[in-house]
Amino acid sequence: MEDKLRVDKWLWAARFFKTRSLAVEAINKGRVHVNGQQAKPARDVGAGDLIDVRRGDLDMTVRVRAVSKVRGPAPVARELYDETPESVAAREKAAETRRLAPEPAADLAEGRPTKRDRRLIDRWRQS
């Protein structure tokens, strides 16, 4: 373990992103903030820094506990940070909202109608 590490490497080692290039892409798009300021990939982070990460519709605020250059197993990566209580509460509330009001298109498991399906629909509409 070291004192400081680039934020893109830390996000990769902490398993927020599958590759460093995905971490760099998210940072360049402004989806990562360190101590309230927009970060650049080479920004150093250390223990005690506060990192805001947005992935899709998931926003997380974590406090860095340790840094590691290597990407270890998920339980070890989880020890590199602590999620803030406000972040946990917001994430759980968003999950509950998604559970109570699911996406309307989620029921469409079969996808678009086939050509045969469209012909049957057209026949049904004409009669």
Q: Can you give a write-up of this model?
A:
- With 127 residues, this protein is α+β, with helices and mostly antiparallel strands.
- It contains 5 helices and 7 strands.
- The chain has a single domain (4-103), classed as RNA-binding S4 domain (Structural Genomics Hypothetical 15.5 Kd Protein In mrcA-pckA Intergenic Region, Chain A).
- The protein has helices at 7-13, 20-28, 74-78, 85-100, 115-126; strands at residues 4-6, 32-34, 37-38, 44-46, 50-55, 58-64, 81-83.
- It has a 5-stranded antiparallel β-sheet with strand order 3-2-5-6-7. The protein has a two-stranded antiparallel sheet with strand order 1-4.
- A hairpin with a 2-residue loop joins β2 and β3.
- The longest helix is centred in the C-terminal third of the chain and has 16 residues, at 85-100.
- The N and C termini lie far apart (73 Å).
Quick overview:
InterPro entries: HSP15, S4_RNA-bd, S4_RNA-bd_sf. The chain is an alpha+beta fold and 127 residues long.
The appropriate CATH architecture is Roll
Number of domains: 1
Coarse morphology: elongated
**Strand order of the main beta sheet, please?**
3-2-5-6-7
Write down the Rg.
21 Å
Determine the CATH topology: Structural Genomics Hypothetical 15.5 Kd Protein In mrcA-pckA Intergenic Region, Chain A
Order of helices and strands: EHHEEEEEHEHH
Structural class: alpha+beta
Percentage of residues in DSSP E strands: 15-25%
CATH class reads: Alpha Beta
The biggest beta sheet reads: 5 strands, antiparallel
Q: Kindly, what is the distance between the CA atoms of the first and last residues, rounded to a whole number of angstroms?
A: 73 Å
Query: Residue ranges: pLDDT <50 for 5 or more in a row?
Result: none
Number of strands: 7
Helix content: 25-40%
Q: Can you identify the CATH superfamily? A: RNA-binding S4 domain
Q: What is the residue-averaged pLDDT?
A: 90
Total of helices: 5
Biased composition (Basic and acidic residues): 89-101, 109-127
Family: Belongs to the HSP15 family.
InterPro entries: HSP15, S4_RNA-bd, S4_RNA-bd_sf
Protein name: RNA-binding S4 domain-containing protein
